[in-house]
Amino acid sequence: MGAVIVDCAAGFGGAAVQRRYDRDLPTHTRLFISVRCSCPFGCSRPRYQCADNLGRMNTPTPAHAHAPDLSLPAFARAWGLTAVVFMAIDAVWLVTMAPRLYQPTIGHLLAPEPDLVAAAVFYAIYIAGMVVFTVRPYQRDARLADAALRGGFFGFVAYATYDLTNQATMVNWPWMVTAIDLLWGTFLTGSVTLVSKAILQRRSI
Questions:
Q1: Which H/E stretch holds residue 92?
Q2: In terms of domains, do 29 and 114 share one?
Q3: For residue 113, is it left (φ>0), alpha (ψ between -120 and 50) or beta?
Q4: pTM (2 d.p.)
Q5: Are 61 and 152 contained in the same domain?
Q6: Mind listing the pLDDT tens digit for each residue in 39-69?
Q7: Minimal CA–CA distance to 188: which of 132, 109, 130?
Q8: 35 with 121, same domain?
Q9: Residue partners of 154: CB distance under 8 A and separation at least 6
Q10: What does DSSP assign to residue 171?
């Protein structure tokens, strides 16, 4: 008989919970797995301990500690899905806000026609970054809100890089444009990550 013990303690007076699961194992093996999380904010950091039939303790490397397994086909599927969702939402924003926000405030800085090649390169790179850092098709999120938060922060940092660089280097770059762009980048990337992650996880069930 083997025992699997899960022991989780939360800080600041949080409740400590221990659960024991007995499972049939080969008679020559005794296995004890202890998963402990102890953090002031209740965060989890698994620690695995195993005992063999001689009582020796060892700590195997958890599976999630290895490099992520993201094959090229899986990456391409996630990239394609994320690209469709991202460009659909962003197109609505650009069509709606270009004449209302960007033309009146920075119209004198805009080219008569956008450079479509540069735009395509941006979308390709940015969405690839989202797949790797926020959508993470190789990882299953217990809470989709976690994926949305990753996406929102990624979008905030990326849009801040663009807008605050312009704010620092260009004459009369409006703070209003910077603030609205930061809000939009955070919402856009967070919501696209949420939708893409939800579809990918549903399809993998």
A1: helix 72-97
A2: no
A3: beta
A4: 0.67
A5: no
A6: 444 444 444 444 444 455 554 444 444 445 6
A7: 130
A8: no
A9: 129, 130, 133, 134, 189, 193
A10: T
